[in-house]
Structures
1.
Amino acid sequence: MLRRKWQAAMITLILTTTSVLAACSGQNDPAATKSVAESSAPAGSEETSEKKPTLKALRNYMQDDYNQYPVNRYVEEKTGYKVNNDMLPQEKPSDKLNLIMASGTDYDFIDAMNKQDFFNFAQNGALTDLTPLIEEYGLNIKQAISEESLSGATVDGKIYGIPTLNVSYVSSGLLIRTDWLEKVGKEMPTTLDEFMDVLQAFKDQDPGGNGKNNIPFTMDSSGLIDNIMGAFGIYGHWNVRDGKIENVTSHPNLKNYTTFIRSLYEQGLLDKEFATNKSATSAEKFTSGRAGVLWTRWSSIPGYDEALKKNVPDAAYQFIPPMTGPNGLSGFAEVGGFNKITFVPKSSKHAEDVVKMINALLEPEVFKGLFIGEEGVDYQVDHGNYIPIEPSFTNTRGQANNFVIGMDEANFVTYWQARLQKSKPMFDNFKIVNNIPKEQVHQDPLAFSPFLPKYSASSDKLGTAVNDNLIKMIVDGVSDEGIASMQRAWVGAGGEEVLQEINDWYVNK
Amino acid sequence: MAKTMKIKQSLSERLYIWFAYIILIGLGILCLSPFLNVFAKSLSSNWAIISGKVGLLPVAFTMENIMFVLRDHLFQQAFLVSVFVTVVGTLGSVIFTAVTAYPLSKKHLPGIKFILLLYIFTMLFNGGLVPSYLLIKNLNLMDNLGSLIFPALINVFNLLLMKNYYESLPESLEESAKLDGASNLRIVLRIIIPISAPVFATISLFYAVAYWSNWFHPMLYLNDPALKPLQLYLRDIVLQASDENLLNQDIDSLLNLSPEGIRNATIIVSTIPILCVYPLLQKYFIKGILIGSVKG
């Protein structure tokens, strides 16, 4: 009997300890890490020296599988390097990237979408200095990428990454129903007064026959509206004045601007519900034919176009060109800057190969093929315009931008426009707000800024503080006290220090 | 039961019951409506969704969204990964939980209390995100589906549930078998396992739902796009269109946004499998939770 009991006890013990171990591994027992040897063999270490190694890459999120996408094969064909791509999640990619970098990594190159991450890694000595490698193997890199761009990826005089530029563009504007304009007998507004006049006509004459549901002008809950703010000389949250950058909260015209929007709201010209609108809600109102003007991005136009035409078959619309304000000002804010910075972690054994590969990709013809495919198959050239051939273009190059490492900066904007041609209404409206006189385009002064830690940390908070207070004033009324309270909220969110930091850089630039 | 109640019901009681039914049905519809809305959107044309025409019924009916999702290579892959993890994980979990819970229910064994305490300790304390990440990494489980299964193999709550169930079994059951000369192993195989069906069913459901809807572990431990399970795939797609994401996205990602109809279809197609499991196991579900809650 005693023996029996012992047996039972032993079996119990063995079973439970195995399962305790199993549970432990789930419950994060740090002791268990010690018992397991580091055994992540460096990729490609066994390959012979003349054979090119497979490179392991960490990319940002895209909807297709990098490794199955045709461009990945193209990269291998043209450079001889097979690339094995992993991908960061869509949600909080920075957190994951930091976790990966902190725990040691075997990636050969990584795309950082967030400049702040890149500079952090570089300052902490986690990245390979690419300067000598670019000097030796990077002829195409030096030709394609401007000094100015490279200096954006330089820390303490050393180039730690290959910057990929974004297209600079005006992203949004005010879409107006041109058929409504005709019905009320008005011309396209060119000044804010005319704009108000048109909205009043939309309200009084109800050209869409919507009755109670008629909305002259709808938008989502934003305080700063392109085109209208431009008419007051405001071009986004940060503006250049007298050689210095200042925040919109201290812009002399901010009160006039807010008063103007407030008057639209008061007179029932601006959607009463705008403060609670999501962008989808305002789009609903416009595409179902209830609204005359919508503030939106041109990139959403393809979907809106189909919806509006189905609901109101004879609808016509376009962006309003820059309108002039009371002081003769007008224009749009332009966004741009770095899309991403590609870097090589110090732990990579293949830094030289990475630079060689990037260099091969930046050979002008190779770059063109990577970016827009093959002429006659994926695109055709018509009067200098690159026109995509569908469906081949979308299927094989629709996501090509994700594979780009460094831009052929002289040409990529021209190539890129092929992407816009896939929807004619989108392309036409893109041109309305982008092909405007240079003096009306105001680039975000921070687009190419170096790493500004305070700005990176608080820019969201600052933006929200400004936006919330603007909306409050539009709904409740504009007063000096309101402006002052917005300024207080902005200072409370750390605005002063951020401004100081930005100007330390800008003034000495 | 129903018969006796019918006889005894007074008017006020009947009114009360009707009232309760109406409220509960109303609440039920309220809970169902967002789901129906997503369902309707998945079967509607994109233009109808953008212009806000879709309520609880599809507008401009189309199967295109659903077909697109079903034909999508990445979706199929993600679906298979999820099914694999759920099936293998659930099987493994039930086995491991059972072989742990049964001995732990035998109070006379030496050291049982201490071992139980070890388990309960992990319920309350853990090392945190970074240590567990390092652990998985050093176990060479990164980019390996094992990272989704091993850490979740035993859930202590389920373990306790099962332990209570075994404790609630009358001791005489085993004693009588012993008197008949059955060995311990024979008792487990011939008596304990057959009468464990309800608790197995409950726990399987718990585990299956947990494995199916787990997105956090895959988000942490998997970087290879081919290994993405359904929930991660879904989250990526659905989050694409959130307003704050639209603000931060670069223009090329905006141009490649998937239409709303397809996002909704993805949600529907990935919800249906687990939705089918629920009604089948529901009767065990309630029974199973009550198991072991009253000790004789």
2.
Amino acid sequence: LTNVFFCKCCAPFCSGSLQIQFANTEDKQEFSKFPTKAGRRSLSRSISQSSTDSYSSAASYTDSSDDETSPRDKAQVNTHGSSDFCVKNIKQAEFGRREIEIAEQDMSALISLRKRAQGEKPLAGAKIVGCTHITAQTAVLIETLVALGAQCRWTACNIYSTQNEVAAALAETGVPVFAWKGESEDDFWWCIDRCVNTEGWQANMILDDGGDLTHWVYKKYPSVFKKVRGIVEESVTGVHRLYQLSKAGKLCVPAMNVNDSVTKQKFDNLYCCRESILDGLKRTTDIMFGGKQVVVCGYGEVGKGCCTALKALGAIVCITEIDPICALQACMDGFRVVKLSEVIRQMDVVITCTGTVPHAVTFITSALIITVSSKHIRTSIKYASLRSPELTWERVRSQVDHIIWPDGKRVVLLAEGRLLNLSCSTVPTFVLSITATTQALALIELFNAPEGRYKQDVYLLPKKMDEYVASLHLPNFDAHLTELSDEQAKYMGLNKNGPFKPNYYR
Amino acid sequence: MAEEKDQTGSSWDDLPLPDKYPEPHKENRVGLNGEAEEGASANPVEESTKDQSVKCSPNLLQMLKAAKSWRTAQGRDREEVSESETEETVAEARKTDMQIQFTDQKKDFNKRLTKTGRRSLSRSISQSSTDSYSSVCSDSSEDESSPRDKLQKNSKGLSDFCVKNIKQAEFGRREIEIAQQEMPALMVLRKRAGGEKPLAGAKVLGCTHITAQTAVLIETLSVLGAQCRWAACNIFSTQNAVAAALAEQGTSVFAWRGESEDDFWWCIDQCVGAEIWQPNMILDDGGDLTHWIYKKHPSLFKKLKGIVEESVTGIYRLYQLSKAGKLCVPAMNVNDSVTKQKFDNLYCCKESIVDGLKRTTDVMFGGKQVVVCGYGEVGKGCCAALKALGAVVYVTEVDPICALQACMDGFRVIKLSEVIRQVDLVITCTGNKNVVGREHLDRMKNGCIVCNMGHSSTEIELASLRTAELRWERVRPHVDHVIWPDGKRIVLLAEGRLLNLSCSTVPSLVLSITATTQALALIELYSAPEGRYKQDVYLLPKKMDEFVASLHLPTFDAHLTELSDEQAKYLGISKHGPFKPNYYRY
């Protein structure tokens, strides 16, 4: 499973909009090509963290080995007599429903959105075709969209991530879902095609994660775009593709970049990593942090989160950084800013969250090496240099390798240099809830925007929506937001209901 | 590496120059110029993204009943502000629309200065430039005659200045030397750029607080090749000895502590000295100098290459000019640079809240229940400092995003009225008015401390406390007891004015950040090629911001990692920065 989820938007360098360089040029080259049989890699392009359900505690009840026939060949009918879907086994619907109900508990924001907007049906008439990970959390999103008046057709954006029972439960309620765990590449495109291409139904909204659906529609059904009111894109890759389209002048509908909303970015990077660094390290190594010397490479959002968490546990933390502003922030927060080579001999733990190519690991004596954030697999740690004949590799448990030098020195490498937070810890439902709520609001905004507000371009989510996402989550903390009085609002020159900060507020 | 480490400790003379930072006035052109960057960088998306953030319609669907935009609702100022809605950003340095709310200052903007008393002269409210509680004081009582009537000469025979007493120069020189120790960044800048004189030919007209720190800035500008004439932006803040030392050194300074309003404008006019000297740069704090030139010597504007403005008020005035189409030179807004903002608000307040409270009340924080109104930069700083001392901290907030941040940082978000009965300390930092009203004050418990860390002195509803039934008792400077008829006492600090300005000092590191930013902004504006800056208000380019930060890193013995060529290529950024896009949220 973990082979698929190796990438993640790198926090320090992409928190505004896209500033990401696909330096490996793998993605770049692939971009404008029509997907060919380039193997599975091209299918696992979705790299948005919070949508990646990599280590879910709710693993499928039923493993996929129970039935060898492809779902494509099976004719299935749900209890309403509809057969416009394709899932592994419609009979698992009941299990899936339970999963969805559990997820609903943790996604109170979407539930309250349902309640608040149900009377108005802000999405009445919307025909949404979606391509995301199909998990219980997504199901809550889909059912919310339906409750708000939309018709949905859904497919998976990743061939491994689908929860079969959830897909069955969705199909049972009448949402045409085309997805199962372990699709082949051919299946993957077949599902997308089935999702888009149906008699008597034409999509007018697209919710995409990774850009595959948009790409397919753009190549195969350009006429659909005439009816589409907007695209909501979640992943860094997909947004990057949209910007390329936009730049080439080929984007003919407005698109909304939800990846870079303030709330989502903070949760994906700062808050999520603050917790997952400890979780991941504990799960894999059972290390005790007090008094350990730790060097964190990079002091962007991810780095800030890691440092706070480690400092709180009594670790001695120092930082390496290239950006003087971030370095100064680290100084003021009480962390020593050093170069890696200065301290590497005495460190117990090395954590990289820079998104960049690393220092030669050969300096390291006996330390844990952990990658928390990187754009691409293994680039943060000079992985290839470790695969030399004089070094012995020993796998001590899953995700933990000992690399043994000829002189007996051991270095513990976690997750083979892949992202620790994706490989060895879970993504909290709360973070997924932020993402899903943001997506729902982006859809509502695009669908309800008056003609002409959005041109054929890529937009960020309006500040007001961002604030609304945050406010929907406040009840989880029993937080009581203060309301401006009329007098105060006038004094501040604000509307009482927001937006409270200008777009460029940091 | 070890060698470098040793050096940094000794003094600024030996500071290793950060070689990796190229001369700002030469190098940043590549980094900053939009076209050049587009060609060079592997980052084709950035440019278009820059626009997106502006294009984003803040409009909302009916469901949310939202405001049309941030600006339209600006109550008192609707007609002017709404025009700006259509503004788009351009070029490399972002223009900003004003987002600051003005209260008192707004009214006297367009008016010619009238005899409104001293308030209009002490308009400069930029925090780090306000030297309100300086440990360095020069008393002015020694001589009652006005400096205007005295003819003074410095040791070189020059008399083109006007200070209290030129004989104090030696004291002032010592002050300046102390300040130099605390402002290593400017000293490094001198050393780095001194050979090249990036400001050669610049004639800088300045109007700022005249303190030892400013003197270091002025002398740095001189070392960089500029000629300077200086006046004070505040009638009370001048350190006479420092002004004398500057005059002695040959800088034409017109300032003394305790000027009258008439003196103030006389000094500015003398400073402009229209007949003998044509300024080509302006460094202003509060906008008075700009205003004077605009009104009295409009012809001077033709020669100007740019204005650098530091204070919130001054920037607001520049935006108004710009909006009216009357700004005919480029202006640089240094107040909103990332580094300066972080230091003025977050870091400075984090320290001064504790300092100010300790100085005034000697309160012990452990276990105290504290409510902090507002969780912006200032609020975040206050909360972090108080939590670290073991206080139980509550937050009130109106913005859901900031409220969610407070939740995730482990603070309870409540409404003020819910906890007002039980808290020991109320701190306001919202920038709003009447956050703590009489109804709250009435319900506070005995001995509750109330103070203001925010933007203006309106946050606590003071008028409501000036009633007959309440007795005021001044217990020490800046500390008042307000006594209710039933004997309940509330401790009000600094009469509701800013605690951090009234009751604590501004660390010189913060002043150093400000001064370095100003110097770099002057260099940038002066050496920018024709056409890079139009007649508008700009933010300091990111590259310069990063340079300011990097100049201060040696203070912390911080060793910045350098990108290898391979890494720089991978990230698609230059090895020397800028490292982050303009919209990056630090």
